[in-house]
Known about the structure:
The complex is a heterodimer. Chain A has helices spanning 7-34, 37-59, 67-89, 104-117, 119-148, 153-173, 175-178, 197-221, 223-233, 235-240, 245-271, 281-295, 300-319, 321-324, 326-330, 338-353, 369-383, and strands at residues 184-185, 273-274. By secondary structure, chain A is mostly helical. In chain A, strands 1-2 form a two-stranded antiparallel ribbon. The two termini of chain A are 39 Å apart. The relative contact order of chain A is 0.16. In chain B, strands 1-2 form a two-stranded antiparallel sheet. At the A-B interface, helix 6, helix 12 and helix 16 of A face helix 2, helix 3, helix 8 and helix 10 of B.
Amino acid sequence: MITNGSSGDKFKGFIASRIVFVLAIIIALLAFLYFSRGISIILTILIQVTMSLNLESGYSGIPQFGRVAAVIAGAFAVGAIPGRIMAAFMGLPAGAEYASDTVNFKLVPQINAVLASSWLISLGFLIMCLVLAGLSGALIGWLISRPAIRLKEGYLGISMLAIGDFFMWVGHNWKLLVGGSTPVNVPDPFRVFGADRFNVIVPVFFVIAVLIFIYLNKLTQSPFGRNLRMLRDNDLSANAAGLNIVKVRTQALVIGAAIAAIGGGLYVIYTGSVAAIGLTRLTFTFWPWAYMMLGGIGSNIGVFLGVFLLTILRTMIIIFRSTWFGFLMQVGIDPLWLEYTLLGAVIIIVILFMPHGLVPEKIAPMLPSKRIKKVLADRQAVSE
Amino acid sequence: VASMATIGFYVIYTGVTLFGGLPYQYYPFVLIVGAITGVICYYGLNRPLLYRKAAETTLMMSTLGYDLVLLSLIQMYADFLTYNFKLFPRRVTMSLFDFELFGERAAAFILPIIAIACLTILHFFLTKTKFGIAMRATIENPTLAGASGINSDRVYLVSWIISGGMAALGGSFMAMAMTGTPVMGMYTIPLMFAGAILGGLGNIYGGILGGMVIGLTEYAGVYLLAQQFGPWILGYRMGIPLFIMAATLLIFPRGLSGIPLGKIIKNLTGQKRGASA
């Protein structure tokens, strides 16, 4: 995916990317003023999920059509474990009956009362949630990588898609885990702040997203990131160069799954309940793919942009559905379905007309040029 | 593309509810509509990508995008039917429109006959006609087939027509057995994929075999397991075929049709490995 066009192409791409960037920032600012804080929370979560997808599919070339599996792992871990631990400490029923729909709605307010009493416990609870989500995501990523890693491209993508759906059905049917078809409530670590809950959630989630962004940027510029790109562009030559393909791919899958699971955990902390049927392949696999493809495969900034633009478009459809699409409503069609059309159309248009996305991947040298010169000079000095 | 199946179902539904008659007399229309959606997908999406030599993942993603567009159109169409004709197209039991044959629902006799007829025609088309052989050659090795003078463009077009028609027909079959909803394609797509890759991609007989295995385990296998372990297992109906798929792919990464049967038989009958080479 190296962009080696002529200089004119490069110039056009440069201008286009700058204009789009400025536009995106303006639209984003307007959106922040216009919409509620809910949308910016969803944005940060989707950015995390999409960045993890970008690590696996954009940098490593693994056709990850089962992103939802890791998100579900994180969501279930946060829904099932931390609440039980709290319940066990408080001497409340913490076993199978915790997730039962007749007990859970009485337990969670009691836990919330304890959490609301001290910010220290709340902080600890939040950290516990994130760690558990990350760990379970890593575990699921590793488990998925076991059968999947040997498969060829198409087989791999399809089996991941199937695994993602399978996890959703397990959560929907296994009552012990997250209550099956009745959603389980999640204790709320932001209850301490009372009415300011949303005002606190936005910066906290944003900081987590930025930390993950910095981590992934460093990771993809490190030798490990170089290995991933080598694997994606030509796995035969990577193997010939002495790279352990299975190991590197497994590492990418585990890291990506852990990050996506943290995203899933934050999502259920924000919504306050886990309903397995709500964690669909549409929201957590296909939309992130659309974001990534629009933003540019293999560029983390592009992911930010793609998520911003598309989420805002989606919300616009929902908000302005009666004014913009009144003609559809007159024949009885609900304009909400246009969301699906938009998703499909974005995927198709991006694939057909701009396969590199808004911000094409740039292959930059791994070190600053001064240091490269210094290293070369040192080597010459040694050889002489 | 899964929504093609749903489209097939809605063509039947519209025909039966608006124009009356038996579901079976609309099957030709189903084939035609399915084929048209296939052609649109090929010309609009697949051909430019094939010319660009896009990666397999890109092709898959683009078909998934097309699937979503179709899904949204179907949903809008369902809304349209509800509003203008006062129908209830979101939960449909097609078997109500069926007639009785020998004390059973006619679907139990007619559907297998149509399915077997389709497969037989397909088999003869692929093995006996010149174009069918060209098709198989293109699927196995496009470059070589092109070099030997096969018009691969036409081959892909015909294969999209056939697959679109068959998918739509399959969807209309499905609706005779279970409740039809706009999202039924969306929910069954993992199983369809599972059937295809269990059999092995790029092999029609593998597809038939994989579909049989998946379908049987989903219904008969789960029924047997439920008798053994209790009814809670019915909820995991989807999981069991997927588990079988994962297990098979662990042992045979290229699916059932990728199993080197000839080699295994030779080994079992005592011939030394590599003796034939």
